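Work Package 4 report. The design task specified in the project plan requires that, given a folded chain encoded as structure tokens, an amino acid be chosen for each position. We show below one input record used in the internal validation round.
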């Protein structure tokens, strides 16, 4: 199951299947974190994930959330969106798309169907190829 094709919300059995398909052992804490994540399409920081999982009555440490989200991102379960050195969001939609980040509100939203054909790609040294590109449009109120 590609996370860009998910019908939200995922049930526990679907969460377990998703993790197994991505070669992730479905431990209790990983399943609880993934169940919280895949309630709906969303962008969350690790702190918001920790807050949501613990407020649902689950016991999980901050380190476990950070480690789990790093694992989920590296395995393609979620997409890591870097805003700056101090702000990272985890996106439950792994399909190709861009993001709009409102610096006034801290809100991150998906942007689809943006024509990126005029984006200039760098000339790469021999032997290298681009495997991914993240585009985040930072906006503010006028």
């Amino acid at each position: 199951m590609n996370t860009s094709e998910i019908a939200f919300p995922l049930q526990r059995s679907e969460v377990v299947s998703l993790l197994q398909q991505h070669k992730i052992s479905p431990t209790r804490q990983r399943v609880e974190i993934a169940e919280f994540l895949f309630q709906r399409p969303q962008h969350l920081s690790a702190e918001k994930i920790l807050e949501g999982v613990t407020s649902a009555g689950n016991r999980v440490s901050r380190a476990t959330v950070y480690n789990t989200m790093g694992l989920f991102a590296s395995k393609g379960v979620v997409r890591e969106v870097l805003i700056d050195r101090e702000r990272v969001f985890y996106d439950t939609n792994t399909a190709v798309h861009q993001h709009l980040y409102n610096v006034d509100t801290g809100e991150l939203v998906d942007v689809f169907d943006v024509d990126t054909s005029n984006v200039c790609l760098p000339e790469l040294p021999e032997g290298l190829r681009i495997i991914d590109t993240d585009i985040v449009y930072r906006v503010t109120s006028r």
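The CA atoms of residues 31 and 142 lie 42 Å apart. Validation will be extended to a larger panel in the next phase.
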